[in-house]
Structures are given as C-alpha cells and as structure tokens.
Design a protein that fits this description.
The protein is α+β, with helices and mostly antiparallel strands. It is 29% helix and 27% strand. A hairpin with a 5-residue loop joins strand 4 and strand 5. The structure holds flavin-adenine dinucleotide (FAD).
Length: 490
C-alpha cells in the first residue's frame, strides 16, 4: 500500500492500513512536521480514530476546550452566542478541542515511526504513477535518484495542489468562494486572562476570527480587503495593530503571519481504479468551522476497511465506488456549512452598516448529516448512517469504552441474544467475522444506547463506527444479507 503525503490525513491513513497488518509506504516531498499550525480544531468523532492509536488522551491533555462561540460586533459585543458543552460528548470524547498542529503531528509521527510495517520516505517526491490493473507502479524522486515501487493501491493524501488528482485529470467543482485571509499565530508570554472563546468579529471594515488555543496559543484570521496592499499587510507593525484589541508585544510573541486563499471546492471523482484521493486533495473549504482535516480523517477511515475487504478477497473492487458515494455528499455538506458561516459573518457585517439581516441558516450548532448510502433502510431515524455513540460500559465490574469492543470490526449489538438467522446471513457473519456484543441496560448507566435500543432490537455497526442499520427479530437476516450487495462481497 502506498500513500503520498505525510500530512495529518496521510499519516492517519498509514496507521489505519498498518493496523490491518499491511506493509505501507508513506512518502512526502518535504521533511518533518508542518512548521506552522493550520488546523487547530478537532472533534469527538476524530478523537475516536486517534484513540485507536492511543493518541486521544495525549491530544486532549495538550489542547484547550472553549466555552463560547460568538459572532460579535467590531466592539466585540456578542451578536449571537453558542455555549459549548465541555467534557465528554456522546462520542466518548469532547466535542471540540483546540490543538497545536506541529505538536499533534509530532504525536502522530511518533506512532507512525514506531510501526515496523510503515516505511516513511521523506524528501521523496511522487513524480509519476501507472495503474497496471492489478497494481500501481509508483515513481518517485529522492535526491535526484529515481525510485520505483509496486503497490496494490496508491492513495493521494497530497494536499490541495495534489499531483495525484491532477495526473488522474480529476476536476474540482468550485463553489465560487475565493477569499484571501491573513492568518496569524501568536503565543502569550504571560497570562492576561483572555476569555476562553472563539469570536467571529463581524467588522465590516475587516472581519476577523479569534480563537484561544492550547497553552497560550492564539489564532487570528483577518480578511484581506480589496483596498489592501499585500506587502503592507505583512508589515509587523501593521499586524501588531490588528492584534491590539487582544495582545501586544509585552505579553505575546508573533509566530507567523501568512496570507491564505480560502477556497471551497470538491473533486468530482475520488478514485480511478487503484488510485484514490483523500483529504485536501479531494476537497477544500474555508476554515471557519475547523473541519478540513477532520473531513480528510473521515475519508481515510471510510476507505481503509473497504481496501482491507478487497485485499482479503472478501469484496469486489466495485466496493470502492461506495467511497465517493458515501463521502462526497458528507464533505459537500461540510463545505456548504463553512460557506454558511462565511455568509453569516458577511450578513452581520452588513447589519453593522445598518442593513437588514435576519439569519436564515444556522452556523455552528448543527450536527453532521448521516452518510447517504452504505446503510440499511431507514436513514431518517437519527441513528442509521451516523457514528454510534460511545458509552463507557461497565461489564462484569470492568469499565471499557465501546470502541475497544468494536475494535475495527463489523459488530451486531443487542440487549438480547441472536436467535436464528438465515443461511446466507450466517455465511456473511462468518465471512466478515461479525462480532456480537451483548449490552445489558445495567452495562450502559449513562443510557447512551437507550434511544437506539428503544427503536431496534439489533444494531449493526461498520468497522468505521458508523451505524449500518437497525433491525428487529423479523428483519435481522435481511439486514445482514443486505451487506452482500451494499459492499460487493465475493
Ligand atoms: C488557516 C487554516 C486553518 C485551518 N483550520 C483547521 C481546523 O481547525 N481544523 C481542521 O480540521 N482543518 C483545518 N484546516 C484545514 C487543514 O489544515 C487541512 O484540511 C489539512 O491540513 C489537510 O491535510 P492533508 O493531509 O489532506 O494535506 P496536507 O496537510 O496539505 O499534506 C499534504 C502532504 O503531501 C505532500 N505532498 C504533496 N505533493 C507531493 C508529492 N508529489 N510527492 C510527495 N509528497 C507530496 C506535502 O508535502 C504535504 O506534506 C485549516 C486550514 C487553514 C489554511
């Protein structure tokens, strides 16, 4: 298995594939962790993936959880506020934690580099590849030397200007959102008791975002306005002036200030045969929701178990079509949501100038949608196609989190035993080694699974922790049998 790009998405992808026992080649044209923070926010669903590799607690220990999100006036007086619930969410981890990207990448790299079945080659640029049907020839340049490898699959996690996507001639559908923003990272040198919050400052003269990161890391994003001179904008004195409502040279240091183009686009194909794309290579969005990396982590989590089924000769390669079918609409929704936040900022800015603005859409307090396919029957139950909640289970006096029991398998969960299922369903249970987890009411004192078991007697969970479907006694066999078609089993 070859992965191009040792960014956050490529590194998680390598761990997911290595966990299934495959030999993974991970290449990157650069060396070392990202020198600056871009991503700063992660969520409970991603922490469940980090937790597979023992990283979730370490990330949380080195993060900050903010209490409030505001859209505010220029004066910082709130216009609309959302209070965040701190502590563990139904995902079994906090719903939002703010981390420092170079540090997080360092944690992930420690695990990657401890794995004997992952070969990392940095300063190694992917310059070409040829899909030969059963395998992909991969051509790289390493210190002026050409190296060739053969791999069953190539996954391009090679970022926004993805070579893999371009070589496959995959077009990006553009949502028409193109704005330049000045992104600054600073670090407090003393505690000045800044509020623990995220503010979208709706100043019509220059909208800006402020976020309070971990251990005094502060993120500021300022919109570049049409009249700006880009050179002047990067002048240090000018930047300190922009930062002056919060910090000054006496209490903080400026790590960097760079201008980014915030785009919104999505690739119209996510794979061609044995070559696939994931992360920023497949989609880009403005960072207002802090969801770009997370969307990429969801991509590779969706993909890894499908590739595993192919390599185990349990599924036809057609299963790869489900990757785009499931991930494209989800990523498109996320992009749309970030644009909505951008529009809210603009609307509140217009209101500051005396224009009427009544927000029609919600900004932050919305739930990710369910995946639209790769599920059984009912997608309107608020359960199917969503990640299964993660309770702390108390089984035989031992406390164990649900994900440890699921352990990247298909599982059927129920409060009762499984009675008889059809012969075909039985064969599928054997082929996929579907585990059965019996959960008594007493095992789940926080009642996180109560809503599910009120509706269904059995719930089938996919290896990526998404609920495949729920059934009762009469349609349990049908639910299990339907996996055959849904995931192209052979
Ligand atoms: C200001 C800002 C704030 C953000 N905030 C958040 C946030 O809070 N939360 C969030 O989830 N996301 C956020 N994002 C988005 C997030 O940073 C990206 O979505 C994420 O970094 C994408 O990860 P990736 O692994 O797909 O790509 P990248 O991180 O871009 O990594 C791609 C890697 O591929 C390598 N590569 C490229 N081409 C080749 C080649 N030909 N050969 C070998 N190697 C190659 C590159 O060197 C690079 O290391 C933010 C982005 C910005 C700009």
């Amino acid at each position: 298995m070859a992965i191009c790009g040792y960014g956050p998405v490529g590194s998680l992808c390598s761990l997911l594939m290595a966990d299934y026992g495959y030999k993974v080649l991970l290449i990157d044209k650069n060396i070392g962790t990202s020198p600056t923070a871009r991503a700063i926010n992660t969520d409970g669903e991603q922490l469940r993936i980090f937790d597979k590799f023992g990283l979730a607690e370490k990330i949380i220990e080195n993060s900050n959880q903010i209490e409030k999100i505001h859209f505010s006036k220029k004066s910082l007086e709130p216009i609309q506020s959302i209070t965040q619930t701190l502590g563990d969410s139904s995902m079994g981890w906090p719903n939002q934690v703010l981390f420092y990207q170079p540090e997080l990448e360092g944690f992930v790299r420690e695990v990657v580099e401890s794995k004997e079945n992952i070969d990392v080659m940095e300063l190694c640029e992917l310059t070409d590849f040829n899909d030969k049907g059963n395998e992909v020839e991969i051509i790289c340049k390493n210190e002026n030397q050409e190296i060739k490898f053969l791999s069953k699959f190539l996954i391009g996690c090679d970022g926004a200007s993805s070579f893999v996507r371009k070589k496959l001639n995959i077009d990006l559908d553009d949502f028409g959102y193109n704005q330049k923003w000045l992104v600054c990272d600073a670090h407090l040198t003393q505690n000045i008791y800044l509020k623990n919050e995220l503010i979208q400052v709706c100043d019509p003269k220059r909208p800006c975002t402020f976020l309070h990161g971990r251990r005094g890391h502060l993120r500021f994003e300022f919109r570049v306005m049409p009249e700006d001179n880009l050179k002047e904008l990067k002048d240090e004195a000018f930047i300190w002036n922009l930062l002056s409502p919060w910090i000054n040279k006496k209490n903080a240091i400026l790590e960097r200030a760079d201008i980014y183009n915030f785009h919104a686009c999505i690739a119209n194909r996510w794979n061609i045969n044995n070559v696939l794309i994931a992360g920023d290579s497949a989609h880009q969005m403005p960072p207002f929701m802090g969801a770009g990396m997370g969307t990429g982590i969801r991509d590779v989590t969706n993909l890894s178990w499908k590739i595993h089924l192919i390599l185990q000769k349990k599924a036809n390669k057609k299963i790869l079509e489900t990757y785009q079918k499931e991930r494209y609409p989800h990523a498109k929704w996320t992009i749309g949501q970030t644009i909505t936040i951008g529009e809210l900022i603009e609307g509140f800015c217009a209101a500051e100038q005396g224009k009427e603005f009544i927000p029609e859409k919600k900004g932050y307090d919305v739930r990710f949608p369910h995946i639209p396919s790769g599920i059984f029957k009912n997608s309107k139950d608020g359960i199917t196609g969503y990640p299964i909640p993660q309770p702390k289970l108390f089984i035989n006096n031992n406390c164990i989190k649900l994900d440890k029991l699921i352990n990247s398998n298909f599982v059927i969960m129920s409060k009762s035993d499984i009675k008889k299922v059809s012969e075909k369903a039985n064969q599928i249970i054997k082929k996929l080694e579907i585990k059965f987890i019996r959960i008594k009411d007493i095992d789940d004192p926080d009642k996180l699974l109560e809503k599910i078991f009120d509706l269904y007697k059995y719930v089938l969970v996919r290896p990526d922790l998404y609920v495949y479907g729920g059934s009762n006694e009469n349609d349990l066999s049908e639910m299990i049998e339907s996996i055959d078609k849904s995931f192209e089993l052979i």
